Each structure stands twice: as structure tokens, then as C-alpha cells.
Amino acid sequence: MNLHEQLGALEMGVDQLIQAVVAPQAENIPETPAETAAPQAPVDHFTTPESVAEGAMPEAQAAETSALAEQPAAQIQPTLEINRPAQNEITMTIGGQTVALRAEQIGQLIEELSNARASMTPEPPPGIPPGWRFVSTKNPVMAVQKQSNGDRLLVMRHTGHGWVPFTFSPDMVIQLYMLLTKG
Predict the structure, then answer these.
(1) By three-state DSSP, how is residue 21 classified?
(2) What would you report as the CA-atom Rg of the chain, rounded to the nearest whole angstrom?
(3) Assigned domain for 10 exists
(4) How far apart are CA 133 and CA 34, in angstroms?
(5) What would the pLDDT profile of 9-53 be if each residue is shown by its tens digit?
(6) Which of 28, 44, 160, 181 lies in the 20 to 30 Å Cα band around 19?
(7) Average pLDDT in the chain
């Protein structure tokens, strides 16, 4: 299975997970009980007792009732739980639906999340945050490719993140060399 097929399978799996979580929630939204619903319309010169009994309400009261009915639905937020039941498996549970991911699926998920995160704001902090936890890869496998504009593409294989690409301008290559060879 090539990378594009794997990504397609992962996207389909994520779509199925979303559908599994969203559809049951839409079906399980509780109806507003009559005693907690919007108060009955007061009888005034615009509303007759018969129209209240028949369920007719002025537009403002109908809008208020509609807004109150929508509030519980907006407050329902599925929670994400991540567990590691075995060395080579992670389970993700969203809104009660659990999916088990193996190593290759986790790699695909990391890649998709990384690609999405790269286009989001705010960017990651410029400095290393205090207390940041990480796993480093000693002497990673690397590949370098010269680009037509003189930049260098450096791809390094991290044990957790997989292949991570970086592009360096010629000036940055010199700075990197100086940083790595500094005393």
C-alpha cells in the first residue's frame, strides 16, 4: 500500500470515527421537558387564552423558546481519551466510540496532524517551552537533496515522528554548521 493509499485509508477511518461520534450524539440530544421549557406566554391583549392553549406564541417568545432549546445541544462536547493498552497499540475514544491504532496507523495520524498543524495559527513557540517532554533520536538516518534555488532539503528520520523534512537556505546551512561545530 503506497503512502497515498494509506492516507486515504486513514482519512476514511477518521471520517468513520467522526460519523460514529456525531450521528449518535444528534440522535441522543435530550428533548427539553415541559417544566424546563420556556415559560408559557402570559395572557395579554395580543395573546388570547385560546392561542396559548393551541401553542401559538408571539414571534419574540418563539425565538426565545428556540434559543433555549438549542442551548443543551451546543453544550455537548465529546471528550477525547487516549490509552496505551499494549506496546504496539494506542486506543482513541471520542464520545464513547473507541478505535485501536497500530504503529503504521499512528504514523499516518502523526503525519496528517503535522501537515494540518503546519498551516494553523498560532505557530508553535519560538523557544523550547519549559517542561516540554520529548524523545530524541540519536544519530538519525538522514538524506540531503540540493534544490534548484540553492537551498538544501534535509530529511531526518525520528523514531516517533517518522521522516521529518527541513529546508535550509545557503546562509542557514552555514549557521547550522557553525552551531554544530561550536566548542
Answers:
(1) helix
(2) 28
(3) yes
(4) 51
(5) 555 655 655 555 555 444 544 444 444 444 444 444 444 444 444
(6) 160
(7) 76
